[in-house]
């Protein structure tokens, strides 16, 4: 019985030691988020092509103010999760990205989750979406991690007024109109030119027909108004008929001989 009690006491002591060491390790991670793993960001930046565009949602420093780093914790984490899905399960890039996802999740645990959600909701209209190059993206993630070390965990920020959507809407409408104007003009101009060409062709044909009719009419009038020309014409016709008759009589006489 004494032996069994010693075993139970020894087992409890081991469990307590493991729990204590785990708490120490967790408190070390949460208290000092900058570890040697941050240097892995440079390795990730070199392993991913420079021209690769990574989608990110962020708030700029001039808008976020003192809450800038807190407002970018969760968007950076979500962006890293989406980036990790681009690589296979056995990829070293995915393994390294998972390290920073865990770090950002640990940082969020150290602050009030409800306060963070309410602040993000208050700044919702100020978030922007972009596609950054590899270098700029990982510089942003690294800056978030480094800045959090010197930022108090308790925060309270008042968001600036939301930007008026009219300017962006008007700008987008103008862009749509500017792009659509050439196509609309082409659709209007081409049929008009085709119709104008058909009208000109029809007018020219009518003018030519009218000119020919006028010529024929003037020739008929000239013949009717000149009696000498008609007499000469009839005289010529009678002479040609008389000569033809004489020629036929001569042929009959020659055949008779």
Short description:
This protein has 257 residues and is mostly helical. The protein contains 10 helices and 2 strands, in the order ααβαααααβααα.
What does this structure look like?
It is a single chain. With 257 residues, the protein is mostly helical. The chain has a domain of 117 residues: Growth Hormone, Chain: A (Up-down Bundle). Helices cover 75% and strands 4% of the residues. A two-stranded antiparallel sheet has the order 1-2. The radius of gyration is 50 Å and the shape is elongated. The N terminus is likely disordered.
List the helices and strands and how they pair.
Elements: H1 2-31, H2 40-47, E1 54-58, H3 61-64, H4 68-71, H5 73-84, H6 92-109, H7 113-122, E2 128-132, H8 134-149, H9 165-225, H10 227-256
Antiparallel strand pairs: 1-2
GO molecular function, one term: stem cell factor receptor binding
Protein name: Kit ligand
Region (Disordered): 217-237
Strand segment count:
2
Rounded mean pLDDT score = 76
Number of helices: 10
Biggest pleated-sheet summary: 2 strands, antiparallel
Overall 3D form: elongated
> What's the CATH topology label of the domain at 33-149?
Growth Hormone, Chain: A
Strand order of the largest sheet: 1-2
Defining traits:
257 residues, two-stranded antiparallel sheet, 4% strand, Growth Hormone, Chain: A, 75% helix, mainly alpha, elongated, 10 helices
